[in-house]
Structure prediction request, 757 residues.
Amino acid sequence: MKRYIECIQKFRWLIALGIPIIVLLLATNLRHLEMDGSYRIWFGEESKTLKDYDNFRRTFGNDDAVIITFKDENGIFNPKALQSIDNITQALWQMKYIARVDSLTNYQYVHANPEEPDDIIVEDFIQEFETATPEYLAERKAIAVNDPLIVDGFISRDGTTTMISARLTPKVNDQTDKSMEIMQRVEAILQPEIERTGYHYMLAGGPPLTQSFVTVAMGDGIFIPIIIVASMVLLLLLFRRVGGALIPIGVVTLTFLTVWTIQILLGYKLNNFTINIPVFIVAIGIADAVHVYSVWVLHRREGMTNTEAVAQSLHKNLLPIFLTSLTTAIGFATLTISKVVPVFTLGIATASGAVLAFIISVVWMPAVLLLLTKPFKTKVVKESKKSQPIGYGKFIVQHNKQIVLMTTAIFALVAMGLFQVKVDSNTIRYFDKTVEIRQAAEFMKENLTGPMAYEIVVDSGKQHGIKKPHFMQTVEQFYTDFQSTFPDVRHLSSLMDTVKRFNKVVNQDESIPDDQNLIAQYLLLYSLSLPQGMEINDKMDINEQNLRITAQVNIVDTSKDLEMINYVRDWWSKTPYTASVQGQTAMFAYMQKDVTDTLIYSLSLAIFLVSLVMLMIFKRVSILWVFILPNLLPVVLVVGLMGWIGITIDIGVAIAGAIIIGVAVDDTIHFLVKYFDARKRGLSMEETFDEVLRYAGKAILFTTIILTVAFSLFAFSSFVPNQNFGIVTAFALVVALVIDLLLLPALLSLADKKSKA
Prediction:
């Protein structure tokens, strides 16, 4: 240690200035920082879910669309509203990246010619609305609100709300995501309509969702300066010195700039989790810096020279902060087992951040401290006063059994909530209710139809099999059973509806005909009657073997999504046919397993690896459980409490478990290192606990306060997983502090056979 300090002393100016200069030069790469909010970032390129979805798009085209909804309290069937629908529809048809536009005005209405009943007409539903009479509009409304093909789809049952769907071209986002450009073009189309009509147009679908991911993530960036300033204020209150605030903040700033730069050089883009890397680095790096600085200040005030104080601080803290950095890195690194890509990248970034924060804390920080030669106002503390009891140790030893029994009872009760916990990875619920995409989805649900969509692909098993009467009749029965079993299924659509409509027009019987040739004729006639761009090849594959059924469903828990998806598969498995469920709603529902696995596996791996490190450090197998329990209980307590109060586990909570273990164990290690050191020196149990509190208690308390404040700020995020992550982590760290200062010493006093009482 002496030679190391001499080396730092010799090159202190080079280290103190050189490291920041190198970091700042590397940070020039931050100009290439990009944000990616695409749905694809949540899945690895080898993901079966993503591959299945890509196969679906190659067969049926893109299911991604911009959905525009609006409401007229007086009804949609008036010239102003219909003109707006038509203007938007026509403009979207001309827009780049749009493959098809469907709306109330261009809905292909199939009906008989009033003058020639044998003629079938397929035409736009609204004709010449500029000069339409009130009688004509009333007739159109009466037809629309009773037409099962469009009611609860393009028009609400009360006729006041409508939808325009602009489907994207198949490969628009394959190379680079065009969502932001698409949204700019859509907003440019809507702006004149807003000024002309005064309507509030709500936007949903893929591009608005991606825009929301990006916008919310960039908005969360405001927490970075707030958390840094809040940390500086708390550090000023702790140390009463400007250096006590600036030096630890310098450690975390150098660390997160380096981590962000590494992310860019590795080709990663920021996402809704990695945008918050600086906050995680504050959590990782601030504790190391505070422990080093606090011991340095303590010895300087006791009259040591600057070099001696730095040497003593490193001597007392090097092993503990190395171990805490190691366990923190382990906690974050366990996230790399997740199949959810943003979580994987967060694990890489934060684990590397833990290593870098340690290096900067023991290399750059001592060099800076060695430059601070201004003398301290010394406080002479008599040795007898140093060892004077402060009452903490006596309280723990006298009440150890009561503390253990009381905390055990509380934890047992709260832990029962684990059986009530549910998992939810619904993408719309990722956003706070103040975010426009969430408002648009809720608006659709309340006024029009289900804002989420399942793309059900039914395989008839044979070429041209979808034209067989039995197959079409089975589809019709599926409609009935699916909607009667699940009221959240608001609307179903497929070519089966078209076949029934043609049969109604021709034979006045809205049912599936028993003649396969007649079904084929209906579909051929319909396809030949459609205008260019509105073909039916997005409803079936080229071999006419697979049929696409689109189900509009309400916003539900992911567990409910999976229940409905499994129902679809099971229902069709009992027929001669098979079915799969595709689309982005289903993709994120399938991600629930990955969310659950992230929580279970990362937490289990973190516990195992941290236990292994603890065993290697303290070499006491018999009381290993005493080391682990205080770090496991905060997670159990918080997740159990979530079960009791009905908060679902999302991806934010899933990553919190391993992080809580990794961060909370820091205080435990500092406590235990100083505890065993005191016991080796022959101190009694009461004296040991008093010494631990005297030398580590203040730093443990203030680092917990800083981390709790930092994480709790996420409660103000518009991204719900970040909200839940922040609240859960902040609460767990407070619980961990109480456990470390009460339950841990109580367990140690009972387990340590060498206690002198």
Remarks:
- The first strand starts at residue 65 and ends at 71.
